[in-house]
Write a structure and sequence with these properties.
Elements (H helix, E strand, L loop, with lengths): L24 H5 L2 H9 L2 H7 L8 H7 L1 H4 L1 H19 L3 H10 L5 H5 L1 H18 L7 H24 L2 E2 L11 E13 L4 H9 L2 E8 L2 E11 L5 E12 L3 E4 L8 E6 L4 E6 L3 H15 L1
Parallel strand pairs: 1-5
Antiparallel strand pairs: 2-3, 2-8, 3-4, 4-5, 6-7, 7-8
InterPro entries: DBL_dom_sf (IPR035899), DH_dom (IPR000219), GDS_CDC24_CS (IPR001331), PH-like_dom_sf (IPR011993), PH_domain (IPR001849), RhoGEF_Guanine_NuclExch_SF (IPR051336), SOS1_NGEF_PH (IPR055251)
Protein name: Guanine nucleotide exchange factor DBS
GO molecular function, one term: guanyl-nucleotide exchange factor activity
């Protein structure tokens, strides 16, 4: 923040800033200042240090700070935008100059990855502690703390997919909480329309990426695009949506225990959905059930 973000306001370096980076500090750094502020207050650190003598109390620190740690979600959501901007401007003289002054071996992008690595590291540490604390006093709390951290990581992961949805007319933020997302084989069987269509639809499934919100289920088609020789970035082009207030679900489809049905308008439209495993199918069904009830 001192060596790069502040330098973007340094009048002596302004002429070195590439035009694509003008007024884009918030995109490049996301809410890094907020994350810095949280740790710099050292409340979390002190709480953890107080557990050196009583490791049983450690889980409580995480449970107590659950909301604070959600600032990482916001950071990770912005990460793809930040990376795209870095690919555009990362080799500019401005960044080289900042790096030279700081005498850093690594360039800025390596440091911008740190918060993402940090939030995924906490759950590994909690897992290790659980291994060492079988049936001790703090075990149940440790399990709860681990579940909390895994929940934050799942949210981070889901939201990074969600920002890649294209072609949806509405506002994704108004669809309620994103509960699940994932790829499935989907067959459709609609009462209306030509019978031929129905027969063809039976055999060849469509690959669809589903996003389950509290209010709506979105069906998207995943597209992977190569960006200037860099890693593939996935985007999800919107195909159709079902309001959760009007759908029904059939948990078992004859002949395949990985399939379930979602139907609309008294089975006028039926979507047969095949998960990659029975476990995954059951997780989705229980989430959908919760929404429906």
């Amino acid at each position: 923040l001192q060596g790069y973000a502040s330098e973007m306001d340094n009048p002596n370096l302004v002429h070195l800033i590439p035009s694509a980076l003008q007024n884009k500090k918030e995109i490049l750094f996301g809410n890094l200042p907020e994350i810095y502020e949280f740790h710099n207050r050292q409340i979390f650190l002190k709480e953890i240090e107080n557990c050196i003598e009583n490791p049983d109390l450690l889980a409580r620190c995480f449970l107590k700070r659950k909301e604070d740690l959600q600032i990482y979600e916001k950071y990770c959501q912005n990460k793809p935008r930040s990376e795209a901007l870095w690919r555009q401007c990362g080799d500019s003289i401005f960044f080289q100059e900042c790096q030279r002054k700081l005498d850093h071996k690594l360039s800025l992008d390596a440091y911008l990855l740190k918060p993402v690595q940090r939030i995924t590291k906490y759950q590994l540490l909690l897992k290790e502690m659980l291994k060492c604390s079988k049936n001790s006093e703090g075990t149940a709390e440790l399990e709860e703390a681990l579940a909390t951290m895994l929940d934050i990581i799942k949210s981070v992961n889901d939201s990074m997919h969600q920002i890649a949805i294209t072609g949806y007319e509405g506002d994704v933020s108004e669809l309620g909480k994103l509960l699940m997302q994932g790829s499935f084989n989907v067959w459709t069987d609609h009462k209306k329309g030509h019978n031929k269509v129905k027969d063809l639809a039976r055999f060849k499934p469509m690959q669809r990426h589903l996003f389950l919100y509290t209010k709506i289920l979105l069906f998207c088609k995943k597209r992977e695009e190569n960006t200037d020789g860099h890693e593939k970035t996935a985007s999800y082009s919107f195909k159709n949506s079902l309001k959760m207030s009007t759908v029904g679900i059939t948990e078992n489809v004859k002949g395949d225990n990985k399939k379930f049905e979602i139907w609309y308008n008294g089975r006028e439209e039926v979507y047969i959905i095949q998960a990659s495993s029975v476990e995954l199918k059951n997780t989705w069904i229980s989430e959908i059930r919760k929404v429906l009830t």
